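Moderator note: this is an archived Q&A kept for reference. The question asked for a predicted structure of one protein chain; the sequence and the answer are reproduced below.
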Amino acid sequence: MDCAILVLCSAFASISIRFTGVEALGQTKEVSELSGLVAMWMIPLHFSFAYQFPLQRFLQSQLKTMVIAWVALVSVGSYTSELAVCVQDAAWCDWDCASYFEHFLVVLVFGLYGYVICGGCPLTWTGFSMEAFSGLWEFVKLSAASGVMLCLENWYYRILI
């Protein structure tokens, strides 16, 4: 069950986001505080990706790509309307716009999950079982290697900038 590993990695990433400041990178205190606040609001984003990616891969392997497209269209429509209200009203803050983006991803995850659970894949989805945890160690090793690679890529990009 790759969701379990991804949720665990999201928890570790959330802890690092919570206790990491950009003030050490030479930013002013005001910029550091605002970016820290926005980063805190973006923590649920990591957890939504932990569920979204496996759901998308499962549906893609079932050739249910139109379902992904329709759920994404509904989610984007919801996000666009909420963001239009946010932009029109100057009283909204940056973290309110971040929370709308989180809402977009939550709608996407629950839409895909609802499709799978409610009978969208009757031949392949038989429910949860302990068999989902087979091959977990191999996935952990692959995830760790991918995480290190992404960190190195991100750091390389930041250093170049």
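Archived answer notes: The chain is about 80% helix and 0% strand.
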